[in-house]
Amino acid sequence: MNINKDISGENMNIILVGPPGCGKGTQTDAIVQRFGVKPLSTGNLLRSEIQQQTQLGKTAKQYMDKGELLPDNIILSMVEQELTEQQNVLFDGFPRTIAQAQGLDNLFEKLQRQIDVVIEIQVPDQVIIERLSQRRVNIQTGATYHLTYNPPPEGEQVIQREDDMPHVIAGRLTVYHQQTAPLITYYQQQGKLISVDGQAPIEQVCEQIISKLDEFLNPQNP
Ligand code: AP5
Fold it and tell me: Whose CA is nearest to atom 23 of ligand 1?
């Protein structure tokens, strides 16, 4: 692995990549707390635009309800507005295509920054289908639950996302394999990829991520 020795926990930009429902959102809080990065989920930004009924939200809904990706230029300009020179970022659900990854490299170059590490959460398609059909979300807080493994507290108002309906899930997986999975090789070739087993229980996935990130940052430690 190509270790950049200047990286520290306080100076690191991270990408979470993996199929829809692999647990990117679920793992975000722990990484944010451990490494002090700002979470940036393009899916959450788009859902917020939909809730506010903006023009972007109306456009986004047409793509999201079908499980299709929005055009790269729309996503890149939305992300650009969120980036600052100072704040380190944890990207969740972005980039989604090689063009977005290259666009991010260009944006970061202007800010004299770079992506330091990419965490791939590996989960097979069959498990994804089960997870997404059992997922429920709190539309107000953004909290995500699983009816069996991480049930919502009693009385909490939760909904099923439009794109978690069975016919949409299959399309999202196809889109992932065709358009997003090539990013794994893209970042592997740059020596920035670490992979974890996303089929383990939520806490164990979290432990794997934290320990592999620590290992990445401190390669000399046993
Ligand atoms: P987005 O919101 O990014 O959705 P996604 O990538 O499809 O990912 P999800 O949010 O569905 O899943 P997740 O990996 O966060 O899993 P979670 O933690 O919730 O994108 C939605 C749409 O927006 C896209 O389809 C596209 O239209 C558009 N879009 C967004 N970004 C875009 C971009 N960059 N370019 C173009 N278009 C874009 O977990 C899932 C479930 O599993 C939960 O119920 C959870 O409790 C459970 N779970 C998690 N981990 C475990 C575990 N280890 N064991 C058991 N259950 C678990």
Answer: 43
> Could you tell me which residues come within 8 angstroms of residue 92 by beta carbon, excluding any fewer than 6 positions away?
16, 24, 25, 28, 39, 40, 41, 42, 43, 44
Nearest to 23 by CA among 93, 84, 82, 98: 93
**H or E element: which one contains 194?**
strand 193-197
Query: In angstroms, what is the span from residue 129 Cα to ligand 1's centroid?
Result: 12
Spell out the residues 6+ positions from residue 31 whose beta carbon is closer than 8 angstroms to its own. Answer: 14, 16, 37, 90, 119, 209, 210, 213
Residue type, 175: V
Q: What is the DSSP string of 15-57?
A: EEE-STTSSHHHHHHHHHHHH-PEEEEHHHHHHHHHHTT-HHH
- Quick: pLDDT tens for 69-101: 999 999 999 999 999 877 899 999 999 999 999
pTM higher than 0.85: yes
